[in-house]
Amino acid sequence: MASAPSTSAPGAEAPVTGGGDQPLPTMTRAAVASSERVLIIIANKVYDVTDYAEDHPGGEDVMLEHQGADATTEFQDVGHSRAAQQELARYLVAKLEAGDCA
């Protein structure tokens, strides 16, 4: 099981977390797309799934296919369980800037 993300700048080697009651940082779609980390967008929120990708039940390739992109439709179409949605929440690192929201 992967450890909780640490705090650092978006796109840096370590993922960013909102940390408790602190507001989440914002990222642009361009920043998400250019990150070396495996970042995905679901419902205008950015998730760093780098440490989870190889453990994903559907396979790492599914995660890498959506690296740097919006995977909202695909995530919803699969019909992920409540447990999967709760697991995803652990990897929330940012929200999209208002101008980049779908």
From TrEMBL:
<keyword id="KW-0479">Metal-binding</keyword>
<dbReference type="InterPro" id="IPR001199">
    <property type="entry name" value="Cyt_B5-like_heme/steroid-bd"/>
</dbReference>
<keyword id="KW-0408">Iron</keyword>
<feature type="domain" description="Cytochrome b5 heme-binding">
    <location>
        <begin position="34"/>
        <end position="97"/>
    </location>
</feature>
<keyword id="KW-0349">Heme</keyword>
<protein>
    <recommendedName>
        <fullName>Cytochrome b5 heme-binding domain-containing protein</fullName>
    </recommendedName>
</protein>
<dbReference type="GO" id="GO:0016020">
    <property type="term" value="C:membrane"/>
</dbReference>
<dbReference type="GO" id="GO:0046872">
    <property type="term" value="F:metal ion binding"/>
</dbReference>
<feature type="region of interest" description="Disordered">
    <location>
        <begin position="1"/>
        <end position="29"/>
    </location>
</feature>
<dbReference type="InterPro" id="IPR036400">
    <property type="entry name" value="Cyt_B5-like_heme/steroid_sf"/>
</dbReference>
<dbReference type="GO" id="GO:0020037">
    <property type="term" value="F:heme binding"/>
</dbReference>
<comment type="similarity">
    <text>Belongs to the cytochrome b5 family.</text>
</comment>
<dbReference type="InterPro" id="IPR050668">
    <property type="entry name" value="Cytochrome_b5"/>
</dbReference>
<dbReference type="Pfam" id="PF00173">
    <property type="entry name" value="Cyt-b5"/>
</dbReference>
